[in-house]
Amino acid sequence: MRIESRPARLGLTAALLLATILVVGLGGFSMGRKVSSFQDVGLVVETTADEMRVLAAAEESELLPGDVIVLANGEPPLSADELERLLRRRPESDLQVLRETDEGEELVTALHRLPRLSLDWAYIALALTGIAYLLIGLYTLSRQRSRQILLFHLWALTSAALYLVTPIAPFDAIDRLFYLVDGACRLLLPPLTLHFFLVFPVRPNSIWARRAVPWLYLPSAALLALQLDQIFGAGRLAGDLSATALERQDRVELLLLVAYALAAAAVLGRRLLSRRDWEQGRQTQWIAFGVAGGYLPFLALYVVPFALELPAPGWLDAIAVAPLALVPLSFAYALLRYRLWDVAVIARDVATYALTVLLAVLGFSLLSLLIRRGVPQDMVVARGFLNASALLVVGTLSIPVKQGIGSSLQRLQYRAQRSRRALQRLGDELLHERDLGRLASSLLRELEEGLSLEQSNLFLVEGDHLTPVREEPEAPVLELAEVDVSLWSEPHRALVRAPLADAADTGYLRLAVLGYHYVFPLEVRDRTVGLLYVGRRIGGAPLSTDDLTLIRQLLNQAVLAIENAQLLEQRQRQLTRVSELKQFSEEIIESSPAGIAVIDGTNRIVTANGAFGALVARPRNEVAGRPLGDLIPLHLFPRQDDPPVEAPFEAPTGTEKYLQLSVAAFQGAAPGHRVVVAHDVTERVAMKRELAEKERLAALGAMAAGVAHEVNTPLTGISSYAQMLLAETSDQDPRRRLLRKVERQTFRAARIVNTLLDFARRGRHEPAPVDLGLVVRESCDALAERFADAGVELQVDLGPCDRVWVPGNDTELGQVLANLMINAVDAMTEAGSEERRLSLAVENSGDTIDVFIDDTGPGIPEQHLERVFEPFFSTRKAVGGTGLGLSISQEIVRRHGGDLVASNLPSGGCRLTLRLPMMPRPQPSSKENDE
Predict the structure, then answer these.
(1) CATH dotted code for 592-680
(2) What pLDDT score does 499 carry?
């Protein structure tokens, strides 16, 4: 049967619906007639034109054979059917009959009672099964209209007609119609079944096989034509209507039924054994389950006893017929693909309920038998109470018996799956695991091994996101807010494959594209923990209800273990964080340049950092436990929480330092503990002093500039007038000597004024590379005549520093060197030193160049060493010293980034040390190279 076009399919659907209406009508009418036959009137009459005579009557009736019925319940019956109708109205009827007696014919009133109701339980079960076939066929037709569904509906409709339409003897015209319908359905059902098995779940690929399908109906069509000839044509085609011919026809029909059954079984077996995808395999399993569950009990409980002519009670026939309803039910399951993966689970559940009911019936029957035999019949109340108690006991025990049978069958079903049994014990093992990573990996690994899953992953809640335990490069970012709130209250949810472009789709559903088929929420105590995603079984089969239940039960235990592991991991992270913060704080304190120490109430040091130990020149391990006063005098410290103070402190090495000291309460410690902080501010104090000195010098310079400007004008006039008077005065004039003194004093005053101006200007020149050796030689050459006049021996030792370079200005550096050497010559001359020697040496000290200027003079008094560079301080004021030479020289040197220091030599004399930064030798310019 091929239905290629939509109109053809709609036409066939309409035809099937019309046939369904016809079967419903015929079946309902046949059931009504059959049910009415359950109540026999208990009377056989013979009707003639004149009278209605009783031929036989039931024992319950007072009628006698030969009675002529006149009235029935006050109405004259016109026919046998009318009499039957009148009698069925009441359980007891009054009939007026003419009865032959010894005295003649008398009118007698006889009471007629209807016999007891005789139910045909086998037909009732068969009729209910037919109704089930009809309803299942209609339901599948309403859901789909594929070719296979249409064929199934025709098969279900034929089966329903076979079970519902039943002729009743003695046959009349209607019963002959029913007999024809029953025979046609009986002949059509075997080829229909074989046809269905051939095209479901997949049609044959061969075109010859599809063309051969209509020939399946040829034998049945031939037998049906023969029956039509026998019924309506009086055997004109068949010819022979003898009992032998009819018996031979029945045997052919039986052989044909067996042949079709064997062929259908062969096709079904081949499909079960052939290689196919999981869906077709499960559909075939459902078909096999329905065939075995429906036909095998019927064969065992009805066909076999009937063939062997064994007596069987009516209830046994009903039990044999009832399982036939499983056949269309399983076929519909397979066609509609509903829970195909649960075929084994449903089969186990059906077997569980069947065994439970069987044991309950057997148990109650045994108890009832014991009660009937053990309790006398006259003890009706006791029998009723015991029967009710037995029923209650059987019903109560049925629940644990059902659970035990179900557990046993489940163990039998999964006996070969060791990994699945291990999975059932995994929940208890996970509760002992504390490492979250190992726990999650073990859970996923055991799930995949135990259930043969293609893939699985666990997404745990971290803030507003769900983070996978296993890396998913192609997985979308899962936002916790995207998850449907109702999911958390469900045991699991099947994912729907949706395109990623669907804007209404959410991340947790888009994982279906990656092969995940189910999602299980993990929640404990109203706290969301995460989501477990699992795929199908290896091979593409979905998970069964047992599998889903097992995963849910396992997760109910695993979520507690996951929560415990998360809490433990969180606690460990917190402890690690606290430890890191503690270590970080200790490192901050230890790396602090300030000395920090904690002291107790007795001023004893509890702990201190390395900087504190360095301040007091003690190792850190020797500082702890010592009194603070042994290291730093206590009177130097301010009171607790007072502002810091600066105090001078002499270190154990003899170096004088300045410390900034503060004391604060130690929060969180025992009472009396305090924190002592000591900063070494020696450099800052020195810089502060130097800044003050510079400010003082700047003020002095400004004042000197003003004084020089005001003094220079009158001084110039005095000098000019003195020179004019000298020009007009002869050498013998005694006033000439006085004028000469005035001239010399004006020159001296002019030099002082020029020195003041130089001090005030402090001009700054752009630094340039200076050849220090060249500056030294030029300065010495310029003063050579002065050295000779003063009788000073000059010794110059440049050594390897003949060509060293310093940044600065050569004129200013030459002025400094000349000033220093002139001061040394003047000091030796004024002191009247017998040995007058001036030594100048240059040494390379790494990054700096040191110029040492030594003389053999009297040296500088120790109390004046620190003041010789102050402006206007001079040890030669008696001979006209201004006190500005060394101050100006030091200022120039400091502008060059160097330093100028004065000291006394052990052998006598003074040493002035000029220290300047050294720079690399400059590269010659292109012009110099050309020259």
Answers:
(1) 3.30.450.20
(2) 42
